[in-house]
Amino acid sequence: MGTENIWLLVIWIFLANKCESFSTTTEATLFSNTTEWILDYTDIESKFSLRTADVPDDDLCYIVPGQPNTVSECKFNLETQTFVVIHGWTVTGMFESWVPKLVSALYEREPSANVIVVDWLVRAQQHYPTSAAYTKLVGRDVAKFVNWLEKEIHYPWEKLHLLGYSLGAHVAGIAGLLTDHKINRITGLDPAGPSFEYADEQSTLSPDDAKFVDVLHTNTRGSPDRSIGIQRPVGHIDIYPNGGTFQPGCDLQNTMMMIAATGLQNMDQIIKCSHERSIHLFIDSLVNKQQESMAYRCSSKEAFNKGLCLSCRKNRCNKVGYGVNKVRTRRSSKMYMKTREMMPYKVFHYQMKVHLFSPDKLSFTEQPMLVSLYGTEGEKEDIPLTLPYLYTNTTISFLLTTDVDIGELLMIKIRWEKDSYISLSDWWGTNKFKIRKLRVKVGETQAKVIFSAKEGEFVQLVRGGKDVVFVKSKDDESSRKEQRLHKLKMNGSLFKPNTE
Ligand SMILES: *[C@@H]1O[C@H](CO)[C@@H](O)[C@H](O)[C@H]1NC(C)=O
Ligand SMILES: *[C@@H]1O[C@H](CO)[C@@H](O)[C@H](O)[C@H]1NC(C)=O
Ligand SMILES: *[C@@H]1O[C@H](CO)[C@@H](O)[C@H](O)[C@H]1NC(C)=O
């Protein structure tokens, strides 16, 4: 923990000592009811560069509001959709390396689209609170730009998708708020937290800013307003990968390896590993269409980590990133998912539920297990897992993930590892639970399967013992249910076609 705090400290040296809320911006003119300002292009400081698939990393042609000739000069395609990419706060005053990556990924998925990068680097490289306050003026610039596209160039609003990272997410929100039509979609990529956690909806990204607002939260560790990414939900769908706090592969060990490999010049990127993960998750959804990640609605990350939230009923699950289903669920709906530590990020989620029984009163906490899954398409062995507690005569539920598609699950092995020290009770051989059935729910397929002991009526899970083996039950409850449903369908009684 201590070392992680050092990183936070470094970030906070980069940031500011204090993060006051906005006071200096021109609140009155910003939200005045006159519409004159939006047609005044003279004070726009942000630049709008139409990047190309061939040169994704350089600004070769700017579209200038008020100058219709720039639209044709840059070969802006009026027929296709437009992505507007908005960067965040920057230490170096230069575009970060993710910008061309995202531009390329957008073109890879939608080759005929227009990808526009907003350049507000000058305002973005100030003292953090100053740059944070500038989001209002930059949002105004973007609002003028898209308003001009629609009013003068007759570009349709429903083809506009703004993508904003960090402070850029709030810029997109303000732009959406200030335009009288609704932008089709805003994607917030780990919207910035400091100065915004407690700010009102007019200053931050919010569900009112576009017809559909989806948000990825990847770096929300720490107390509110100290966390780099905003913690509260700000969209129609807010996804918290790996709990949203911190991302796998961004730990100190990886950081050290990256410093060893690339030196200190990439310091800001190393520090922002979890923050920037939001962008790479979105890029993943663009380029790895066949490996779409799923997220699941859940009341808390603790409940999700117990595997309790893998349901897809009533829009409880959704695809992550570009292919999201645009369901406008009630506000504050948080969704969770696990990921790998590198692209492709997709994992398969399993809930496992067992009842532990024993004649003896046993109680353990933080127990290490190794679980192996065998399926029709593949297998994944020795997945490590720590179970928070094991008590006699209780049912435990836990979440397990694999990065391989094992197909339909056929067999499961579990081994209860023994931590290094030997307790007295080990000698008495009492450290074992009996398990009769193992219930499994698969998030990605929504399959529910019951497993039972391969041999005998139950297995004996022994601490430090051998693998226990479960196989798919012959009289699987759920398959019986399916047969029953099938029968009813065949009889044409209860089900009409396409009721789903
Ligand atoms: C603008 O607001 C002012 C005061 O809030 C009000 O008196 C005025 O009628 C409004 N104008 C329009 C065009 O809505
Ligand atoms: C657990 O339940 C079983 C059967 O229900 C019972 O025989 C056993 O005594 C219980 N164990 C304890 C420690 O209460
Ligand atoms: C339809 O229902 C009837 C009465 O419940 C039953 O006897 C019959 O076997 C069913 N048919 C099929 C195809 O399941």
From TrEMBL:
PTM (free text): Tyrosine nitration after lipopolysaccharide (LPS) challenge down-regulates the lipase activity.
Gene3D superfamilies: alpha/beta hydrolase (3.40.50.1820), PLAT/LH2 domain (2.60.60.20)
Keyword check for Disulfide bond: yes
EC number(s) reported in the record: 3.1.1.34
Residues in PLAT domain copies: 348-471
Record's subcellular location: Cell membrane; Secreted; Secreted, Extracellular space, Extracellular matrix
Task performed by this protein: Key enzyme in triglyceride metabolism. Catalyzes the hydrolysis of triglycerides from circulating chylomicrons and very low density lipoproteins (VLDL), and thereby plays an important role in lipid clearance from the blood stream, lipid utilization and storage. Mediates margination of triglyceride-rich lipoprotein particles in capillaries. Recruited to its site of action on the luminal surface of vascular endothelium by binding to GPIHBP1 and cell surface heparan sulfate proteoglycans.
Active site (catalytic residues): S166, D190, H275
Family as reported in the entry's similarity comment: Belongs to the AB hydrolase superfamily. Lipase family.
Organism name: Albula glossodonta (roundjaw bonefish)
Single biological process term from Gene Ontology: very-low-density lipoprotein particle remodeling
Binding annotation for Ca(2+): E201, D209
Membrane-protein topology: Peripheral membrane protein
Signal peptide range in chain numbering: 1-21
Designated name of the protein: Lipoprotein lipase
EC primary class: hydrolase
